[in-house]
User: What shape does this take?
Amino acid sequence: MKIIEFDEKGQRVERDSRSIRSDIGSSLAPRPALKTAARAQPDSASTGIELYMFQTGTLRTKLKYIKMNQGEEDFEIPVPWFLIKHPAGNIVIDGGNAIETAIDKHGHWGAVVDAYDPIMDVADNCVDQCKSVGVDPASVRYVVQSHLHLDHSGAIGRFPNAQIICQRAEYEYAFKPHWFSKGAYIRADFDRPGLDWKLLGGEYTDNFDLFGDGVFKTIFTPGHAPGHQSFLVTLPRTGPMLLTIDAAYTLDHWENKALPGLVVSSADAADSVQKLRRIASDTNAMVVTGHDPENWETFKKAPGEFYD
Assistant: This one.
């Protein structure tokens, strides 16, 4: 397995199971040499950089599992994921639930289903949804992971030419989580042979600009998970869009009215929200929270609509 990461000085290091070596070359995955897929919209309607908002069904749960200690009421949340079309290569963010969740949720998730019951059709998987907007899975250059929880790991290993970008802290924790987080990680989703991982170094690589053009930047936002990251996407027409992912499940988290139902550090979770609020204020970004059913309803949804 090939792994690209950054050391404590922010220097790129490439390693495999047999050796560790320094490498100062480009860390970008090569662009797949493929024909351009047909667009979901006419070329004249787009700038060429497009953000699509998808979801892999919903999770039926209890309010307390989303807003810490808030109650036993039933609560149903969307499971979003995102696709970015970019001239330098397509990006899939998270991919939502893995397709196995729709096929056999108890077999794939086990006892987690008792707390978070996934409602998902097989056709909701991220690969087929990419195809619905004219994106060949082989044309995806990057799969970017906000973190590795089970409702965010659906894209890993599904796109044959993609490099997977994740925080090193998250990658390492996923293999040895605390007891209270263990159920959130489905090892079969991410412990796969032949994957090309690029591991970022937390604060040392904060605001990592994937293409060097300001369109897609990662923001280190630990708390919900040790290596959680959010994303600032700056589009030509729409402008900045801040994808908080699970740093702020809901607007209540965003407004400091509740903590997420699952955290590894409440203090880090609160600090990450404050960090994102400063970024949103500085950039005047549109804020997209991670699982808020009401907030999610206000956005344009794929496959019929996109932001550019």
